């Protein structure tokens, strides 16, 4: 046990300070790298019934997402929701599917964000390794943490891809990471990035995106809707800060544009179930605006770091249709920041901010 043997070339000492020697029988472990793991919500592996069902089951079984009584929810989920929703939502996903790669856009965009982040920060410190994962579906958080550790990452920066924290999103990403760490003998040190509702690079990117998109139209919207994903009102009543973060982002963007109040209106989309969610609702607001005579609007979705079902199908598709049916004439959807220059400036700024003390890269 105490016998010291030389480490084979190319392997790193199992323990810091062990120098070039390992105790006999101790497996060599790589150390010294810093992993940056960006994590978005998730996406099904396919649009067929079983892929959709697997994905929705994992997602909707998360106690952070659905806080209803466990026994009651087991019945509702397994007997009602999972017999109807996979088919209906599979059809919706099919309308936005990336057929070339056979995956949802969220996965395509998140991969590209990780690649571009690597190109931006990789050359600044050769200890940095960037990777990406999905909270639900694949690649899982646990599998990527394991892969990063195998590459020698003994420090991990986890970046939940939600500018505005909510327990149902950011916290559940941290849960997944800690669950993975629970099973490890030698855990990497974990840092979780703080949300960035007021990050200057993010506000600048959103304001620039609005300006550029509107400049490309031959009409001017009477107002712009900033539509954020909703959460049940009960979660807000219990103290979730999400609502305040959304309003803060919207206010800062409006101020940056020099717009009066009312020109950028906050709404909440993607209601699920019968309970009350954060109001005002996006679909009801858009319908009421058209009915009251508003003819031209644009919609931006600042809470989504990447385009997905909720932006492409629900806003650019369903809500545009609602607006036109109710008498509206011009509707423009402003894409998410995705892997654009502004989107990447935002992620780079957040990652650099959160790496301080680990890597001094500006
Ligand atoms: C049922 C409760 C849900 C809560 C609470 C919730 C919060 C929440 N979600 C996002 C971001 C995304 N949600 C997406 C899809 C999606 N969301 C829910 C339910 C809740 N979300 C469901 C059931 C689904 C799947 C589609 C459906 O069946 O309607 C997505 C898109 C994923 C994709 O692949 O395109 C995102 C992104 C946030 C930011 C949030 C709270 C702050
Ligand atoms: Fe959602
Ligand atoms: Fe939706």
From TrEMBL:
CDD domains: Ferrochelatase_C (cd00419), Ferrochelatase_N (cd03411)
Main location per the UniProt record: cytoplasm
Pathway recorded for this protein: Porphyrin-containing compound metabolism; protoheme biosynthesis; protoheme from protoporphyrin-IX: step 1/1
Ligase as UniProt keyword: no
Record's keyword annotation contains Zinc: no
UniProt xrefs under SUPFAM superfamilies: Chelatase (SSF53800)
Cellular localization per UniProt: Cytoplasm
GO molecular function: lyase activity
Listed Gene3D superfamilies: 3.40.50.1400
InterPro entries assigned to the protein according to its UniProt record, in alphabetical order: Ferrochelatase, Ferrochelatase_AS, Ferrochelatase_C, Ferrochelatase_N
Annotated positions binding Fe(2+): 229, 310
EC number: 4.98.1.1
Keywords for the protein's UniProt record, in alphabetical order: Cytoplasm, Heme biosynthesis, Iron, Lyase, Metal-binding, Porphyrin biosynthesis
Domain of life of the native organism: Bacteria
Signal peptide positions (record): none
Class of the enzyme per the UniProt entry, highest EC level: lyase
Pfam families per the UniProt record, alphabetical: Ferrochelatase
Reaction(s) catalysed by this chain's protein: Fe-coproporphyrin III + 2 H(+) = coproporphyrin III + Fe(2+); heme b + 2 H(+) = protoporphyrin IX + Fe(2+)
Alphabetical list of PROSITE patterns matching this protein: FERROCHELATASE
Family to which this protein belongs: Belongs to the ferrochelatase family.
Biological role: Catalyzes the ferrous insertion into protoporphyrin IX.
HAMAP family assigned to the protein according to its UniProt record, in alphabetical order: Ferrochelatase
Protein name per Swiss-Prot or TrEMBL: Ferrochelatase
Organism listed in the record: Ancylobacter radicis
Source species taxonomy: Bacteria, Pseudomonadati, Pseudomonadota, Alphaproteobacteria, Hyphomicrobiales
């Amino acid at each position: 046990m105490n016998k010291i043997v030389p480490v084979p070339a190319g392997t790193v000492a199992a323990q810091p300070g062990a120098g070039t020697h390992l105790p006999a029988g101790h497996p060599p472990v790589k150390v010294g790298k810093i992993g940056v793991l960006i994590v978005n919500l998730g996406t099904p592996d396919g649009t067929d019934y079983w892929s959709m069902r697997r994905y929705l089951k994992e997602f909707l079984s998360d106690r952070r997402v659905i806080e209803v009584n466990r026994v009651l929810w087991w019945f509702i989920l397994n007997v009602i929701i999972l017999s109807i929703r996979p088919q209906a939502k599979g059809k919706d996903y099919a309308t936005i599917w990336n057929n070339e790669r056979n995956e949802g856009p969220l996965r395509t965009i998140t991969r590209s964000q990780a690649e571009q982040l690597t190109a931006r920060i990789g050359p600044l410190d050769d200890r940095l390794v960037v990777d990406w994962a999905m909270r639900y579906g694949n690649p899982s958080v646990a599998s990527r943490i394991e892969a990063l550790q195998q590459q020698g990452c003994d420090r991990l920066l986890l970046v939940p891809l939600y500018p505005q924290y909510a327990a149902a999103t950011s916290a559940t990403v941290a849960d997944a990471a800690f669950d993975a760490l629970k099973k490890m003998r030698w855990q990497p040190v974990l840092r979780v990035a703080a949300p960035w509702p007021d990050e200057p690079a993010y506000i600048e990117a959103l304001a620039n995106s609005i300006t550029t998109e509107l400049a490309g139209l031959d009409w001017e919207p009477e107002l712009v809707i900033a539509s954020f994903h909703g959460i049940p009102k009960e979660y807000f009543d219990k103290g979730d800060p999400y609502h305040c973060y959304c309003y803060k982002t919207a206010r800062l963007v409006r101020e940056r544009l020099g717009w009066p109040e009312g020109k950028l209106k906050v709404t909440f989309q993607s209601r699920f179930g019968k309970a009350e969610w954060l109001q005002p609702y996006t679909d009801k607001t858009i319908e009421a605006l058209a009915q009251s005579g508003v003819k031209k609007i644009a919609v931006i979705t600042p809470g989504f770091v990447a385009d997905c079902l909720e932006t492409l199908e629900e806003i650019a598709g369903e809500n545009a249709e609602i607006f036109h049916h109710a008498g509206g004439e011009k509707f423009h959807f402003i894409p998410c920041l995705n892997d654009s220059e502004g989107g990447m400036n935002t992620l780079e700024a957040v990652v650099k901010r959160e790496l301080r003390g680990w890597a001094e890269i500006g």
